[in-house]
Amino acid sequence: MASYPAGELALEKGMIGIGPMPGRVRGYQADLTALLRWPADLVLSLTAEEELEMAGAGRLGDDLALADVGWRHLPIANFGAPGPEHAALWAEASREAHRVLRAGGKVFAHCWAGCGRSGMALMRLMCEAGEAPGAALARLRSVRPCAVEMPGQQAWAAAGYTAAP
């Protein structure tokens, strides 16, 4: 049986985790409990509000706040990548994620299945931290083979990389 996270990797001084939306594995409350036991310091939800509701996770943000866990909701269409309208949301989420990671904390990203959109976000964080896109994708897929499903997702994630001078 899957658990939270479905895959995890070290990044900066912390850990990143990837998996399906709470409510998709054993039911919302059991999945939320497992996520809090990991323990996540920040959760990135890359799903539409309708997807959260379908999985019984409509209260995810409120429940995470009650547990003193940060939450960033970046609604991206399934199989999609962020557009210009997501730039400010990503900038905030990225700053917070890197702050958590530099402090030795844990960032968990999910989408519906815990593959494309969540993999894209974590690959972007890895690239922003200085990891070359190909290496970041290979390392991410070593723990979650389905991570980053679409070429547009990979391109958006890789755009976060700036080679050292």
Explain what you see.
- The protein is α/β, with parallel strands linked by helices and 165 residues long.
- The protein has one domain (7-157): Protein tyrosine phosphatase superfamily (Protein-Tyrosine Phosphatase, Chain A, Alpha-Beta Complex), CATH 3.90.190.
- The chain is built from 7 helices and 5 strands; from the N terminus they run ββαβααβαβααα.
- A 5-stranded mixed β-sheet has the order 1-2-5-3-4, with helices on both faces.
- Strand 1 (7-11) and strand 2 form a beta hairpin.
- The radius of gyration is 14 Å and the shape is globular.
Question: Care to give the gist of this entry?
Answer:
The protein has 165 residues and is α/β, with parallel strands linked by helices. The protein has 7 helices and 5 strands.
Helices and strands in order:
Layout: E1 7-11, E2 14-20, H1 28-37, E3 42-45, H2 49-54, H3 60-66, E4 70-73, H4 87-102, E5 106-111, H5 116-128, H6 133-143, H7 151-158
Parallel strand pairs: 2-5, 3-4, 3-5
Antiparallel strand pairs: 1-2
Helix pairs in contact: 5-6, 5-7
